[in-house]
Amino acid sequence: MTLPDKNVLLFDLDGTLVDSAPDLALALNRTLEDLNKPLVDQHTIRGWVGNGAKVLVQRGLSGSATINELLDTALVEEALTIFLAHYQQCLCIESALYNDVKEGLFTLKLAGYRLAIITNKPAIFIQPILQGLGLGNVFELLIGGDTLPQRKPDPAPLHYALAQLNVTAEQCLMIGDSKNDILAAQAAKIDSVGLTYGYNYGEDISLYQPQWCFDHFKALLTLLIKNEE
Ligand SMILES: O=C(O)COP(=O)(O)O
Ligand SMILES: [Mg+2]
């Protein structure tokens, strides 16, 4: 199958291209340790990734996916500053591209697709991570969770991408692992692909009704490139 009207692919980062949870967990636990707070196992932290650094830190301090509303604002700000410094030091220790992502992105680019990243991760970390994983020159636009005041599931970063790339919603496909990606795409009237291997808070991404749902990154090539098996 091919999608002739699409020529722009908007990719989520964490849980879609990169399994970044081990390093996010490392940085979060170093932060909690500095603050004498209880540490959290990596499996639990996997279920907390997807709403950006501040929410991750708030979940860490709450010891739960549900943020404790009584958390002290100054403590959250202090923890966020500590977390960002730790994460800067461990961006690519254990983080790795999912299977077939590197070859797949190069194939899509060679086939003529324009590629962009729209992540909820702070923007300063995007390029170093891409560089560290051999994808430094693949994307023409990088949008982070703090590029605009709004982040996914708000459609604002997607609208911003359309304007920056000078394309229409119909030309784009949003590809992500989380309901935030699918809801943002739906609000921006952009078709979406949900990938099931990422984080999505332990929930089945198909519940959010993306146009396509795949268990492997490679399936994107079948959808987007003629004559691929
Ligand atoms: O770092 C996060 O919270 C999630 O980032 P993502 O939007 O790339 O999944
Ligand atoms: Mg994600």
TrEMBL record:
Q: Which SUPFAM superfamilies match?
A: HAD-like
Q: Where are the transmembrane segments?
A: none
Q: Where is the active site?
A: D12 (nucleophile)
Cofactors needed by this protein, per the record, are: Mg(2+)
EC numbers, comma separated: 3.1.3.18
Provide the residue positions that the database annotates as binding Mg(2+). D12, D14, D177
Function recorded in the entry: Specifically catalyzes the dephosphorylation of 2-phosphoglycolate. Is involved in the dissimilation of the intracellular 2-phosphoglycolate formed during the DNA repair of 3'-phosphoglycolate ends, a major class of DNA lesions induced by oxidative stress.
The protein here is known as Phosphoglycolate phosphatase
Query: Which species is listed as the source?
Result: Colwellia ponticola
